[in-house]
Design a protein that fits this description.
about 290 residues; alpha/beta; Rossmann fold; eight-stranded mixed β-sheet
């Protein structure tokens, strides 16, 4: 396994918007963390790429583990790169997978390549640019071929509005196979108005949707991350107890009638009226 090349105390780069991206040793989990400004973006353990420290990433990993046959190679597209935590996870657990990553900031790509090198032999291609624009220009050979699309795009602590709309999700859904799965990381707080609207928007494009989250987050009692899994085909019902068992705990999977109640009367987000995800209080990152 490649070793990190970080000189103490940290590795940094200034991004196009003036913010600073840093890779620093993780104080709590081993490995390294990529942060932008004061917002943690990714955790990577080079010695064990299957170590998914952030809870929402572990939930995404639990869904990925259910795709196809255990250990079978996947075709995956990742919108939002960060430190490439999930591409590393897939390369480790599903050798031979073909992966495309779209990351807005070339500076982040260079920082990660230099200080957190990818495992040798991993088929991970990184493209730079806006996730929506680059996804629309991906090779025709990828259209309808992706087993997995992950949308985890943040500018600082917020997902930009143009990456939350029905037009955006239609564009990325075209990459999926008939049974392919879209995973979306949604950050929201009290009332979950943004998350409810995102569920309505994604369900406008992909018929079957489930939400995975920590119980208190789902109740709107704390700011946190909700993972949406969606597909054209019915999500296999046998996934649900497996996802619950996989943790992290306490966790809940919302699906079917319960999801319809969660969504309520939330409106579909469109290019003309979408909003960025809510910005969390700075104290969220001090827990």
């Amino acid at each position: 396994m490649a070793r990190a090349t970080i000189e103490p105390p940290e590795a940094t780069v200034r991004l196009s918007d003036g913010s600073i991206a840093r890779i620093v040793p993780s104080r709590f989990a081993g490995g390294y963390e990529l942060s932008i400004g004061e917002t943690p973006q990714s955790h990577v353990d080079l010695d064990d790429p299957t170590h998914l420290h952030f809870e929402y990433v572990a939930r995404m990993g639990a869904v990925i583990d259910q795709l196809g046959e255990p250990g079978a190679a996947l075709t995956a597209v990742h919108l939002g790169g960060g430190a490439l935590t999930l591409p590393r996870y897939i390369a480790a657990t599903r050798p031979g997978s073909r992966q495309q990553v779209i990351e807005l900031e070339p500076g982040i790509v260079e920082l990660v390549r230099e200080h957190l090198p990818l495992p040798k032999g991993a088929s991970i291609r990184i493209r730079t640019g806006d996730a929506r624009e680059v996804a629309a220009r991906l090779p025709e050979g990828l259209v309808g071929r992706a087993d997995l699309v992950v949308s985890d795009v943040f500018s600082g602590a917020q997902t930009p509005a143009h990456l939350t709309t029905v037009e955006y999700y239609r564009g990325v859904a075209r990459l999926l196979t008939e049974s392919g799965v879209l995973l979306v990381n949604i950050a929201d707080g009290a009332g979950l108005a943004f998350a409810r609207r995102q569920v309505a928007t994604i369900q406008e494009v992909l018929a079957d949707v489930a939400v995975l989250a920590e119980v208190q987050t789902l109740k709107g009692r704390r700011f946190g991350n909700l993972v949406v899994a969606a597909s054209r085909a019915p999500l296999p019902t046998e996934w649900l107890p497996r996802l619950m068992a996989a943790g992290p705990h306490p966790a809940k999977v919302v699906h079917g009638a319960e999801l319809r109640a969660f969504q309520g009367k939330a409106r579909v987000a469109r290019d003309g009226d979408a909003t960025a995800s809510p910005r969390p209080a700075d104290s969220v990152f001090l827990r």
